[in-house]
Specification:
By secondary structure, the chain is mainly α. Among the domains are: about 210 residues, no CATH class; about 90 residues; about 80 residues, no CATH class; about 90 residues, no CATH class. It is built from 56 helices and no strands. Helix 27 packs antiparallel against helix 28, helix 41 packs antiparallel against helix 42 and helix 49 packs parallel to helix 51. The longest helix has about 55 residues. The protein starts with about 35 loop residues before the first helix and ends with a helix.
Length: about 1150
């Protein structure tokens, strides 16, 4: 229309354009059919070439028809239309600049250009949204794979999408607002463009690297609309809405907000978005778990990108964590807390800016104060200097805010702070300057208060997040590990607890979790800083040494998995160990343990320096530091074949090696010393001898002889001194006896350790060597036979396939070792046999031998002797259980439980009749003994060494134990036991009689067994059983079983504690279905009649119940044969199977 008497209004719905509009409102006149669209598009294309972008005024109906028939037309038609519309918008971007600056533009021309802009932008945005939806649906159908199935057009949509966005950005960069009257752009036009942008952001791949061009274009287009077209409030609301529904957009919107606030100068957008987050109620957040996680991630990433803009909103951030941290999902807490890490540097910059002198007078005054005397400076130190110290302290200890003596919101604390701060110098200038300075100091104090509040919330979150390290969700564990690393890097109080707690996760079967922990430790401890290789090596050694100091054995084993490749710092470690670098004994021990970790990867690291190890740690001064000697022995153990699997001849050193000379001398001399660390050294030394020495039994025999001789000499010398003195004080005599008891205890501990490792040596090393030699012999015979032996080999093929040849050979070897243990180890000519009567005497006479250390060592050594053979075990088993039950020392009882657990694994048939005595320790009065008992029994039951029987009810009692750790162990026992078939179902009737646990579900079988329990239970147990039945998740099948077992509990209904719970069952079941409702109504009536008749002594015929309503059970009383009186011996596992283990 040449007169341009109409105006184009952007519709709310696309279909509104075909309806009759208002005065001078454009209405679509001709909706072209799908078949006619190609020819109409050709006319559109020709008009574009001849008339330019204003052709859209005449051919709008063609583009609109494509939208109307979007589902029916071919993809090629849509693409042609899209290309034309992009050309129209681009053409307008080229032609409009000269028109916009023209002062002679008529109203008709302005209306013409405005209608062209609105029409083209409307069609382009709507068609883009349609193509984006088609592309998303196609990706879902094809699983994201691009190819012919997707259509070539959709494959190219990524590049076409960028062209659309670039055309729109180019247009909106112009100041097209002047086309509107009074530059008031209608909201519908802006919404049309923003809806298209947000539609593109909904794409799941928008955060991927390949989508970066599209993402950047959308961000810049929205930035233009926010800055020039009043989209600030709408953007804030839309960001919140999309974060709630699309978790992956947290990083995208963080980048967008950063760009809008910096490049486009819209700093208010951050405050707008954060205020929207702060206005969310706790109920609203609790319903949206993923949304909260997205909010927290968004805050964290924005703080990293623009920390200076986040600082004014720190109060809202504090409230977000303060009110919602404990009730929100784990990852939300972690992400929200991490934003502090990004804000700390900017906080320090802000503090410094606030503290900088602003005027020339202040600068001159500062120079004068620096030039004054020291005493005057101390007296005149003002609050600015105090605040500078606070800022410096914050930089070093970013989270440690204990230096602050105030807390948020307390007037008393504020007054205390003001009292502690030095007085502000009085200045003569105007009062306004003083007020400004005071206001600045008040703001600084409030600022530090907010900082403290935030830091305390992060510290409180540490204990919560530490528990998440062992959740079953991999992503949560990874986020928790990342949080622990972040807070540790910023020196948060108690942050090291999480770092240590995550260490055992290096053994996780989940590769992602294991990699996360290894990466975390390498980031914290194995990423040295320095200019030279030497400096980096020293820094790395310092970090690892800090980690190794006071580390437990389990921690050391975990670290071996992480730092076994620390060969680059070997030289520095040797220097520290040998004392070339001045260091403490703790760091020497850490260095030698780290060398052992390096030796796991390369044996020569330690093997080539054995002499150094012997001279430094095992030489003349060994008795001064048995801990260093022990750690050195642990390091040497890493070069043995027990650490690395070797198929060749075993690696062993000759008996006369300097190492074994030093070890035997150190162990023997330590026997007659009273050193608390000698025993741990002795155990590792004996272990190393059996791992590394040729004929270790001969070495240990000489070791015991020498130790016994030294002990006898010491006793003889003490007796002679007492005899010569004539008059000896009682105190000195008692101290000598105490010393002799300690030395005897150490000798007995050495005997037990030798006996244990002798058996282990026979069953592991000797057995493995026998198998290796047999394999070599068979290979050699096969080679000697050659072609001539093929026929014989064919005849024995069947036997080889069945494994008869190898099995018979292994059985022979196992029988040989068993005979050695049974007949030779404790023969009269063997030194070990000389100590067994002494052990039995000490354990059997606790009144005479009452020294705690002697009793403990003797009981432990006797249990190690019992591991040698079944005969020794049978002879002393009664004595060991007597010690277990009657010893007054908790440590002896705990050790006895552990030893008897090992004996149960080794000789199950001997220990099986004593099972009840083991379970009895679950009720020990000492918590440590109960904890040991439940731990040992859990291992035995879960590994099927002990059969699960009624005694497990003793474990159930521990569910209400006062000790929380014992509670968790008992609960873990039942959780693991629940995975074994129906073990829990068979045990619960007995357990319910002791403990009601409403959290455990049960089926109809449990209902039946619980009803049978009424027949043998007491009055109190009737009520417990009835309550337990009422708490079960009852179904139709369970209700039927309840009816069938009527005779079991009908005579108990006189008890209100039985009658009321059973009546409540019917109330719960009535709503399930009609048939069950009728059955429940009948059952309720019978319960009421029977219960009331029993209570009021009314005579009601019993057949009314049992015949007319309930069929009687076949046999409610358990038969005699169902209650086992004699336990069945546990089948002995084959010797060959144990040797393999």
């Amino acid at each position: 229309d040449s007169g341009m008497s109409w105006d184009f209004f952007v519709p709310v719905c696309v279909g509104d354009l075909v309806k009759t509009g208002g005065i001078n409102q454009y209405v679509v006149q001709d909706v072209v059919s799908a078949k006619q669209l190609p020819s109409c598009l050709n006319k559109f294309k020709a008009a574009l070439r001849s008339q330019g972008p204003l052709c859209i005024l005449e051919h709008f109906d063609t583009g609109y028809s494509v939208l109307q028939h979007c589902k029916a037309v071919d993809l090629a038609v849509k693409e042609d239309t899209l290309e034309l519309l992009v050309q129209v918008v681009s053409g307008l971007s080229v032609s409009l600049p000269s028109i916009l600056v023209s002062t002679s533009l008529s109203a008709a021309e302005r209306k013409e250009k405005l209608n062209a802009v609105k029409m083209s932008v409307f069609l382009l945005c709507k068609l883009t949204e349609n193509l984006e939806s088609d592309s998303y649906r196609q990706n879902i159908v094809t699983g994201g794979k691009k190819g012919k199935a997707c259509g070539e057009g959709l494959v190219q949509w990524d590049s076409e999408r960028e062209q659309v966005l670039q055309a729109l950005v180019q247009l909106f960069q112009l100041d097209i607002r002047s086309l509107w009257s009074l530059s008031l752009v209608e909201e519908e036009f802006i919404s049309c463009v923003t809806c298209c942008c947000y539609k593109l952001l909904e794409n799941p791949t928008i955060s991927h690297v390949k989508s970066k061009p599209t993402r950047d274009c959308v961000i810049h287009l929205l930035g233009l609309l926010i800055k020039k077209y009043n989209h600030l409030l709408g953007a804030g609301v839309k960001v919140i809405q999309m974060l709630q529904h699309f978790e992956q957009l947290s990083s995208v919107f963080a980048q967008a907000v950063s760009v809008w606030s910096t490049e486009y100068g819209v700093r208010a957008i951050i405050g707008e978005v954060i205020r929207e987050i702060g206005q969310k109620s706790s109920e609203e957040l609790a319903r949206e778990g993923s949304g909260v996680k997205a909010f927290a991630s968004f805050l964290s990433e924005v703080s990293a990108l623009v920390p200076e803009l986040m600082i004014p909103n720190i109060i809202i951030t504090i409230e977000f964590i303060l009110f919602f941290s404990l009730s929100l999902p784990a990852v939300a807490v972690i992400k929200a807390s991490e934003l502090w890490a990004a804000m700390v540097p900017e906080l320090l910059v802000t503090v410094r800016k606030e503290l900088e002198p602003t005027s020339e007078e202040e600068k001159e005054q500062q120079e004068d104060e620096e030039g004054g005397e020291v005493e005057e400076e101390k007296e005149a130190e003002d609050d600015r200097a105090t605040a500078v110290k606070i800022a410096q302290y914050l930089r070093v200890n970013k989270y440690s805010v204990q230096y602050l003596t105030f807390s948020s919101g307390s007037d008393d604390d504020t007054s205390e702070l003001n009292h502690n701060l030095p007085p502000t110098p009085q200045k003569e200038p105007e009062k306004e300057g003083e007020d400004g300075e005071l206001k600045k100091q008040e703001m600084l104090v409030q600022y530090l208060k907010d900082t403290e509040t935030f830091a305390l919330q992060v510290e409180r979150a540490i204990s919560v997040i530490n528990t998440m390290l062992y959740w079953k969700t991999t992503s949560v564990v990874q986020e928790a590990v990342q949080f622990c690393v972040t807070v540790c890097e910023f020196s948060v109080a108690n942050s090291i607890s999480g770092v240590r707690k995550m260490l055992p996760l290096v053994w996780s079967t989940d590769a992602a979790i294991k990699d996360a922990v290894i990466h975390a430790y390498r980031r914290l401890y194995l990423n040295p800083q320095g200019d030279t290789i030497r400096t980096k090596a020293q820094t790395l050694v310092d970090s690892l040494s800090e980690l190794m100091v006071d580390a437990s054995l389990g921690t050391i084993q975990c670290l071996e998995e992480i730092v076994s490749d620390s060969s680059t710092v070997v030289q520095v470690l040797w220097e520290r160990f040998t004392g070339k670098r001045e260091t403490s004994s703790l760091y020497k021990r850490a260095a030698v343990l780290l060398l052992g970790m390096a030796a796991r990867a390369e044996r020569e690291v330690v093997l080539s320096n054995l002499d150094t190890l012997c001279s430094v740690a095992l030489g003349e001064k060994v008795t001064e530091d048995f801990l260093l000697a022990r750690d050195a022995v642990i390091t040497i153990c890493n070069i043995t074949d027990h650490v690395r699997q070797s198929k060749g001849a075993p690696f062993r050193l000759p008996q006369d090696h300097q190492l074994f000379t030093c070890l035997t001398q150190a162990v023997a001399e330590g026997v007659v010393m009273e050193d608390p660390y000698w025993q741990s050294f002795m155990e590792q030394a004996v272990r190393l001898i059996y791992f590394l020495a040729e004929s270790p039994d001969q070495l240990c025999s000489r070791l015991l002889q020498r130790s016994a001789r030294l002990l006898l000499d010491q006793i003889a010398e003490g007796g002679e001194v007492n005899k010569d003195a004539g008059q000896m004080q009682d105190g000195s005599q008692e101290s000598n006896e105490q010393l002799n008891c300690v030395c005897l205890a150490q000798l007995l501990a050495a005997c037990g350790c030798v006996a244990f490792w002798q058996v282990s040596h026979l069953e592991r090393s000797v057995s493995a060597e026998l198998r290796r030699r047999r394999g070599e012999t068979e290979e050699r015979e096969e080679k000697e036979k050659g072609p001539a032996g093929k026929q014989t080999a064919n005849e024995s093929t069947m036997e080889e396939e069945l494994g008869l040849i190898g099995a018979s050979a292994e059985d022979t070897e196992a029988e040989l070792i068993r005979n050695i243990c049974e007949t030779e180890l404790l023969a009269e000519e063997n030194l070990l046999s000389a100590f067994l009567p002494l052990l039995v005497r000490v354990c059997g006479s606790p009144g005479r031998y009452s020294h705690p250390q002697l009793t403990t060592a003797a009981c432990l050594a006797l249990s190690q002797y019992m591991m040698i053979s079944p005969s020794v075990c049978e002879e002393n088993i009664r004595l060991m259980f007597t010690v277990l039950e009657r010893s007054t020392l908790p440590v002896v009882r705990a050790n006895a439980i552990i030893a008897l657990g090992d004996l149960t694994v080794r000789f199950p048939n001997i220990l099986e009749p004593w099972t009840q005595n083991l379970y009895a320790r679950l009720s020990d009065e000492v918590p440590s003994v109960r904890q040991t008992a439940v731990t040992v029994l859990t291992q035995l039951v879960l590994k099927d060494v002990l059969k699960v029987k009624g005694q497990v009810s003793e474990v159930a009692v521990l569910l209400i134990d006062p000790d929380s750790h014992i509670n968790s162990l008992a609960l873990n026992f039942f959780n693991e036991l629940a995975t074994k078939d129906n073990a829990i179902y068979n045990l619960l009737p007995d357990i319910i009689s002791r403990l009601s646990d409403p959290e455990r579900g049960m089926n109809a079988q449990l209902c039946t067994m619980s009803c049978f329990r009424f027949l043998t239970a007491s009055t109190r147990q009737w009520c417990d059983l009835a309550v337990s039945l009422s708490l079960l998740s009852m179904c139709e099948r369970g209700f039927k079983r309840l009816q069938e077992c009527w005779e079991c509990y009908s005579d108990k209904l006189t008890e209100p504690g039985v009658y009321q719970p059973l009546l409540s069952i019917t109330a719960k079941l009535r709503h399930l279905n009609l048939f069950l409702n009728i059955s429940c109504a009948g059952f309720s009536a019978v319960l009421i009649v029977h219960g009331c008749s029993q209570t009021s002594s009314l005579l009601v015929p019993l057949h009314y119940v049992s015949i007319s309503f309930f069929p009687p059970p076949s046999d409610a009383v358990m038969a005699e044969s169902e209650t086992p009186k004699v336990t069945t011996p546990i089948a002995r596992t084959s010797r060959r199977a144990r040797l393999r283990n």
